[in-house]
Amino acid sequence: MDPMSALDESLKKSVGGRTAKVLADHLDLHTVGDLLHHYPRRYAERGELTRLADLPLDEHVTVVAQVAKATKKTFNGGKGVRLEVVVTDGSGSLTLVFFGRGVFKPEQDLIPGRRGMFAGKVSVFNRTRQLAHPDYQLLDAEAGRDAVDAFANQLIPLYPACKQFASWQIAQSVEVVLDSLNAAGWAGVGEPLPAALREARGLAPLPEALEKVHRPRTKADVNDAKDRLKWDEAFVLQVALARRRAAESALPAVPRVAAKDGLLTDFDARLPFTLTEGQRKVTGEIFGDLATDHPMHRLLQGEVGSGKTLVALRAMLAVVDAGGQAAMLAPTEVLAQQHHRSITEMMGDLAQGGMLGGAEHGTKVTLLTGSMGTAARRQALLDLVTGEAGIVVGTHALIEDKVQFHDLGLVVVDEQHRFGVEQRDALRAKAGQPPHLLVMTATPIPRTVAMTVFGDLETSVLDQLPAGRSPIATHVVPAKDKPHFLARTWERVREEVEGGHQAYVVCPRIGDEEADPKKKSAEDEAERRPPLAVLDIAEQLVKGPLAGLRVEVLHGRMHPDAKDDVMRRFTAGEVDVLVATTVIEVGVNVPNATVMVIMDADRFGVSQLHQLRGRVGRGTAPGLCLLVSEMAEASQARARLDAVAATLDGFELSRIDLEQRREGDVLGQAQSGTRSSLRMLTVIEDEDVIAAAREEATALVAADPELTGHPDLRSALESLVDADREEYLDKG
């Protein structure tokens, strides 16, 4: 029998077709294993009342409360009945409203003193919070106080639920499934964790852990269960990644070693500065990988402005020196054009190989994007297939079927989190043998995320800024509370421009979207201060506080040629203020830009704000970043902005960012387009578990790559890591 077959069984058999359909349609739970891995969100003690004071509006909730009073009213000539039940938990009260005829069940059940669980969507009527026609289940149906006291200390699991299926209905289904498995002695349920590992770490067997997480007698039971189930998730994921790393290291690749006194040597001789210690260390790691006969799989992450592009360019030049080609993949045309421009500028005549005036060891640096004209595109394709172009920079246009390389040796992917896994894989497939792969991200990643999302890549970190980089001062501008601060913001921009510098103003949207029909009055318009849109802001600045300055706009819906023209003129100093969307978030390098104003900054994530801030302070003059917000000082959004203002440490900010997001955003949809396979494990809090699981998994896979001695673990790989997630891991 398949060791995990009992957990792979359809729920229809145990809970019935109708219930199984609701669980599948609304909670994405299809098998016995799906249901048992749908863990309680928290636990209520039957003697403990949950706080009603903090109930969120317009959300579906489950509360444990006691009936304080019930009032019956009739309408429609006495035919209709409206029952209003006030329940309390000591912190606040909530009104339950039921409609019916004559004497109906809620009227009989919900009498003062009775306690129950109530589920529904929180709304407000006559300034009172209420649940209209909530589902409920009495916890003291016998009405005897002794009956309540008897189970007062028991824990009630409260599950992530939905309107169609309340928490206690999920609990009832879980009870049915657990009873069935217990009756069968848990036959057909395997143990994914090796016995030696379980014993060494004092972890409960899987059946015991599932019992304790769903039917705990004490809080210690819950902790025991969580310890075990976190290990399952961490270990299974790390085994999948360790197998991927082992498989990649077995693949053949062409070693790429830079020729002596070649292109790289000439390039280094022209650098007007010395590499930082961090850049030298990381370069050593990359060059070591490139020299081996299996493909490099390395993640290069670093602080904004730490010189990742220079490190990547030197790797590309080394590959060209060794007779191969290098491709750099960027997520947007603006960024691809920016990379192409900065690379050709850094290389000078070394980027004019084969051309009149080109250097002896030069190569051709080609740009390939979707919006190029036919003639330019045809020439670029020819340069690639003949090998004339040693370096190509492009967008997703690089992975189209028509694009062929002469000898693709290295793929550099910029901003991996913006690029689909399938796209990255398609470009790698264009090489005869797997090319070396360098993934760059300017978003610092906590160590545990690097061990999970990027667990099949070796990691290099650049945390040193090049000498001469200026500090960036960051301040929050409370536009609503202190409008004169906003006026001062524009004065500072004007001062910087008059001092010979340039400025960015970033807005969350463009402004040519369809108008909101609800926002028509002048009063409504006046409420939107400051405006959220690029086009609105640019117009107001030109007519108002920045009148006389050269102000231009840049956003994603502009024609690529127009975008490129604006960026060229801004880079050349012909534009004073660039009002843009987040299209300038990464890669844009204008050392003369010293001030960054971010409008409605609370609408951006922590890491995104850090990225945007990194566009200034790139020259010798100090940088200034002003975060404009209308949010109240005590709000969570303002706390986020204060955190950004308080530190320039991207790794610290990435931890804050991750703590404020759902786990699935990081590990599920953000990478593979599916829900996360991690339901119990949290990548920030469980760093020790993840690190230990990685060690254990690496050792196990080294000893038994095919897991022939661990059939239950093989099954768990398919069961706990969903198919799409496996596919993502396989593509690495």
Care to describe what's here?
This protein is an alpha/beta fold and 732 residues long. It is built from 29 helices and 21 strands. The two termini are 32 Å apart.
Please give the alpha-carbon distance between the first and last residues: 32 Å
Report Rg. Answer: 30 Å
Number of helices: 29
The profile of the biggest β sheet is: 7 strands, parallel
CATH class of one domain: Alpha Beta
What is the name of the CATH architecture of one domain? 3-Layer(aba) Sandwich
User: How does the helix and strand content classify structurally?
Assistant: alpha/beta
CATH topology of one domain: Rossmann fold
- Within the largest sheet, what's the order of strands? 11-12-10-13-14-9-15
Tell me the layout of helices and strands.
Blueprint: H1 5-8, H2 12-15, H3 17-27, H4 32-36, E1 42-45, E2 60-75, E3 80-88, E4 93-101, H5 105-109, E5 115-125, E6 128-132, E7 135-138, H6 145-150, E8 155-158, H7 167-183, H8 195-201, H9 206-214, H10 219-250, H11 263-270, H12 277-290, E9 297-302, H13 308-321, E10 325-329, H14 333-347, E11 364-368, H15 374-386, E12 389-394, E13 408-414, H16 421-428, E14 436-441, H17 447-450, E15 458-462, E16 472-478, H18 483-498, E17 502-506, H19 522-527, H20 534-543, E18 551-554, H21 560-571, E19 577-580, E20 593-598, H22 606-613, E21 623-629, H23 636-646, H24 650-659, H25 663-667, H26 669-672, H27 687-703, H28 711-720, H29 723-731
Helix pairs in contact: 9-10, 10-27, 10-28, 11-13, 12-13, 14-21
How would you summarize this macromolecular structure in one to three sentences?
With 732 residues, the protein is an alpha/beta fold. It is built from 29 helices and 21 strands.
